[in-house]
Design goal:
This protein has 164 residues and is mainly alpha-helical. 60% of the residues lie in helices and 7% in strands.
């Protein structure tokens, strides 16, 4: 097996023990250097950053796409729940119960049967999904604007990132 290739350090610190070919960025295969075997363990780098501004347009785009995905999930979940309730004969049981309490010509019975149709359930889920998309997109854009104003006043959110 061949020995691993030695690459120069990222920080640019070159050891005095390293050969000239390593200093020029050309590592030799099969050659071990003293510097590679005696380097002390490097502590993880830590970088302090401050998040002082967010791009409102990018926040709006991301929130729109995520809310469209949640809207699709709402419509699909409504269809699945309706089909599950229909297979469990919940709607027919409710119709039979209301049919015994009222005659089939009454307005309450006709309204209940009309309200429990699949097209009505999907229409309501679609309306809720569209309202959710509009509100979520608008509120996240407003939130990004408010964050930018607040960050300008107090300096933003300070983060410390570390290499592992």
């Amino acid at each position: 097996m061949s020995e691993p290739v030695i690459h120069p350090p990222v920080s640019g610190d070159m050891s005095a023990d390293a050969p000239a070919s390593v200093e020029q960025g050309q590592a030799q295969v099969g050659v071990k250097t003293q510097a590679a075997t005696t380097q002390p363990a490097v502590a993880p780098r830590r970088v302090r950053l401050a998040l002082t501004r967010v791009n409102v347009l990018s926040v709006t785009k991301v929130s729109f796409l995520l809310s469209v995905a949640s809207g699709i999930m709402i419509v699909v979940a409504a269809a699945l729940v309706w089909f599950m309730l229909d297979k469990m004969h919940v709607f027919s049981t409710i119709q039979d119960l209301v049919g015994t309490m009222f005659d089939s010509d009454s307005n309450a019975f006709v309204a209940l049967v009309e309200y429990m149709r699949f097209s009505r359930a999907i229409s309501m889920a679609t309306i809720i999904a569209v309202v959710n998309i509009v509100l979520t997109t608008a509120l996240s854009a407003i939130g990004a604007l408010l964050y930018n104003v607040t960050a300008a006043l107090v300096g933003g959110v300070h983060l410390t990132l570390a290499d592992e």
